[in-house]
Amino acid sequence: AYWSATPAVNPFNGEFDITVLSFYDGAEGPIRYADPYGIGGGSVVFTPFRTRLVSGASTASGAPISGRLSSCYENMLNEWSDSRYTDHNDGTVTDKKTTLMWKQCAEGQTFTGSTCSGIPTLMTWGAALAKDGSPFAGYTDWRVPNIKELASLAAPICYKPAINTTMFPNSGSSPTTPGYVYWSSTAQVTNGIPWRVDNIDGAVVGGSGLGLPASVRLVRGGL
């Protein structure tokens, strides 16, 4: 696994973890996710991971978080502010950074004009993929996002939930809340199990779970 310069919030104690990336299977997130085998020493503070350097200016941008995201560190730059999105006032938003259009509500929820009512429907991966082509807001090319697209919504400097809750209201924020794990359409090369994103802290998670239910947020466009 390799260090990044991106902090992540540990959802269990609210303290900092650091986001790391495993080149074994592509897992990305706080140390507890990206080092499932304890290679780096588990919870040891000075965990010995590898480092790969890059040149050029940081891509981080934005202003300090002002409370529009839930439980975020105020001294971290906010790359997921409201200004990043165009709200079409029909239950969809466009991410100006990625050009992707997203449904604001998870499948099973209803857009009321200002929020998402109800709770997300938990479904298997197969049932999630069957949602491809579902009509909404005049479009019929909605689909389950790939893992790169899904992870672009995650705000790892926030937790419970790690997402912009103005643009994506009533998102699941705890393991007891439907909607805290979302399916991607991307399967892991090592075992064929699909990648998911944990809405609590924004971690990209793999492991087992093909038959377990999760939530779905549909997208259109492409990365």
Protein model, in words:
By secondary structure, this protein is mostly beta strands. The protein has three helices and twelve strands, in the order E-E-E-H-E-E-E-E-E-H-H-E-E-E-E. It has helices spanning 31-34, 125-129, 147-151, and strands spanning 2-9, 16-21, 28-29, 85-87, 92-95, 101-103, 110-111, 116-117, 181-187, 194-198, 204-205, 219-220. The protein has a four-stranded antiparallel β-sheet with strand order 4-5-6-12, with no helix packed on it. The chain has a three-stranded antiparallel β-sheet with strand order 1-2-3. Strands 9-10-11 form a three-stranded antiparallel β-sheet. A hairpin with a 6-residue loop joins strand 1 (2-9) and strand 2 (16-21).
Give a short overview.
With 223 residues, the chain is mainly beta.
How much of the sequence is in beta strands?
15-25%
Percent in helix: under 10%
Question: In one word, what is the shape?
Answer: globular
Separation of termini? Answer: 25 Å
User: The biggest beta sheet, please?
Assistant: 4 strands, antiparallel
Parts with pLDDT < 50 across at least 5 consecutive residues: 11-15, 32-46, 59-70
Radius of gyration: 17 Å
N-to-C SSE series? EEEHEEEEEHHEEEE
